[in-house]
Amino acid sequence: MTTTTIAKGLEGVLFTETKLTFIDGTAGVLEHLGIPIQQWAEKSTFEELSFALLHARLPKADELAQFDAALKANRAVPAELVSLIEAFPKGVHPMQALRTAVSHLGLFDADAENITEEGRYALSVRLIAQFSTIIAAIARTQEGQPVVAPRADLTHAGNFLYMLTGKEPTEEQARLFDIALVLHVDHGMNASTFTAIATASTLSDMYSAITSAVGSLKGPLHGGANEAVMDMLDEIGTVDKAEAYITEKLDRKEKIMGVGHRVYKYFDPRSRVLRDYAAHVAEKEGKSDYYAILETIERVIVERLSSKGIYPNVDFYSGTVYSDLGIKKEFFTPIFALARISGWCASVNEYTLNNRILRPDAVYTGAREAAYVEIQDR
Known about the structure:
This protein is mainly alpha-helical. It has a domain at 225-324: CATH 1.10.230.10. It contains 16 helices and three strands. It has a three-stranded antiparallel beta sheet. A hairpin with a 2-residue loop joins strand 2 and strand 3. Helix 7 (156-165) packs across helix 8 and helix 8 runs antiparallel to helix 15. Keywords: Acyltransferase, Transferase, Tricarboxylic acid cycle. This is Citrate synthase. It holds the Pfam family Citrate_synt. One of its GO terms (biological process) is tricarboxylic acid cycle.
């Protein structure tokens, strides 16, 4: 008798090789191209990390300048797409809007069906550039405000904040948002990246692959935890109520959003970076209460759950950073997509170089050799 082990959620299943991202969940390590995420956050930019993942190497100065220029040259989106976004129903889920807009964008790209290595790369550059324009346009129109056109004299992060608010951000605000994007660019074979690869493995086009990824990220088990953290902070209200609130939830064995991770059994290294920035911004913006609540929650979680390998993850602090930058919580997940588009594209491009269609199997548990029963006899 053959014994079959089912890997629920595909946990531990290896299906490909990658040079892009390394994760050691036990030690709390995240590296891109072998470089720790802390160094990327401290020394690099979203543009440079995007190039590095697309090319699997660090760029030279002139290469990075050319890549940055290409992103800036591709920021504008077709007027027809802007009109569509403006026609979206008010109150629509931002990720629904993003999914629809990305799919629609492909209709206006004459090279959308180009699935050659060069074609996928060119589409990657356009998608990375235009995601920020699309997301900002969705946010503006949902607020009943006019769409703000992109500027070519700002960084990718700075330009997004400008298109979102209509005001040029300070250098510090732009840099803080840039760091947040860097921390979210790629994270191995997560659900949305795997979904993008699965779609692309059929030799479908890049827009279809990315639309699939957006649909996957929309699920609250993947992309919505940072929004839920902010809901929790608002529910707690003040720091003096935080310990009792979390203790009662733990006693009832309820899930704490922003805590625990499928991969990490130690502190998520991205959360350590964001914690420091969250503290700085909270103090500067006069929102130290939020940070004090998070500190209290983290202390209780570590005391109660660290023995089980449960610690705060990147979503734990990211929401407060986004909130202090003037981003509303319903757009936290689209911001996730704004960063992750580079990782999606890079992973699709890497996998399809040696493509094999993804086709897993399942253990059949139903009846065998059953007789068909006529409808009148059922």
